[in-house]
Amino acid sequence: MSSNVKHIILVMSGKGGVGKSTVSTQLALGLVAKGYRCGILDVDLCGPSVPFLLKLENQEVHQCEAGWVPVYTDESKSLGVLSIGFLTKSRNDSVVWRGPKKTAFIKQLLSDVFWEDVDYLIIDTPPGTSDEHITVMENIKEAPCDGAILVTTPQQIALDDVRKELSFCRKTGIPILGIIENMSGYVCPNCSECTNLFSSNGGKSLAEHFQVPFLGTVPIDPRVSSETSKYVGLTNPESPMAISFNSIVDRVINPN
Ligand SMILES: Nc1ncnc2c1ncn2[C@@H]1O[C@H](COP(=O)(O)OP(=O)(O)OP(=O)(O)O)[C@@H](O)[C@H]1O
Ligand code: SF4
Fold first, then answer.
1. Ligand 2 atom at minimal distance to the Cα of residue 195
2. pLDDT tens, N- to C-terminus, the chain (256 residues)
3. Is 194 annotated as a binding residue?
4. ipTM of the shown complex
5. Nearest residue (CA) to ligand 2, atom 7
6. Ligand 2 contacts CB of residue 197 (under 6 A)
7. In the CATH hierarchy, which top-level class contains the domain 5-253?
8. Annotated binding residue at 173?
9. Does the beta carbon of 190 lie inside 6 Å of ligand 2?
10. Which residue, 6, 15, 44, 209, has most beta carbons within 10 Å?
11. What predicted TM-score, i.e. pTM, was given to this entire model?
12. Contact 110/139 with Cβ under 8 angstroms?
């Protein structure tokens, strides 16, 4: 890992589709909005969605003497992204690799990217707990890893899967920065009333039970899909989603 990275945060989820990549990108954009320089390393080899979410599809990764150069979202280089999505032909191309090839590639992603003075590097990991996670954990031991954020949704099955993530983090010695409950209630686009579609407070109860921080809830907001390339806190500052993310970003910057 490049010595220019000050903080590393892993974003994990027990199952796919709960919004892990959305949280990773919004977190990075939120940190950038507060003046930090960030990077996102998308190691979700089978479903790299960060280039799509940041509208960076079809960009190419270049190499310099120091390693792979991330794709930057703007000229000021405040947010750099490295994802296998830049190396496959299309978003729908699947990576069919055996374990050793995946492990070698992840090691390369962790060691060969030239990050330029990054305050926060967000690592978007695959869903579940897999060999890829073990490879990441083993290869950031010497790096300044703050810990993992676990993303879940309110449904019982997603909450059950988060228990496995918690136990995985504890076994591998990764500190848990906290739990985020995404898609927690639906915000009506007309009157902004938030309706809980599933059970509520599951993420918070889980955090209390395991004595880890609860970072907050994020509601379902239909506008997020079309606006994810921008920080919701800047596009709709009054929206419930923006309010949620602003306080989550603050808790990540000031964990105590
Ligand atoms: N709070 C939200 N409100 C509305 N849509 C959301 C929200 N969070 C995520 N989504 C949408 O849900 C879909 C899945 O989100 P995302 O890709 O972030 O999940 P993921 O957990 O990273 O999935 P995978 O691990 O399978 O890649 C996306 O279309 C995203 O725009
Ligand atoms: S939440 Fe309010 S605006 Fe939205 S559908 Fe219900 S009553 Fe109508």
1. 1
2. 667 899 999 999 988 889 999 999 999 999 999 999 999 999 988 778 899 999 998 888 888 888 899 999 998 999 999 998 887 766 556 666 777 788 888 898 898 999 999 999 999 999 888 888 888 888 887 788 899 999 999 877 777 888 888 999 988 889 999 999 999 888 887 777 778 776 667 788 888 888 999 999 999 887 777 667 888 888 888 888 889 999 999 999 998 7
3. no
4. 0.92
5. 191
6. no
7. alpha beta
8. no
9. yes
10. 44
11. 0.92
12. yes
Q: Taking CB atoms and a 6 Å cutoff, what residues make up the pocket around ligand 1?
A: 13, 16-22, 44, 47, 49, 127, 182-183, 218, 220-221, 224-225
Q: How far apart are CA 60 and CA 82, in angstroms?
A: 10
Among all chains, which residue has been given the structure tokens 């940190």?
31
**Domain segments of the chain: what residues?**
5-253
Is 141 assigned to a binding site? no
Pure H helices in the chain? 20-33, 50-53, 99-111, 131-139, 156-172, 202-210, 224-227, 232-235, 240-253
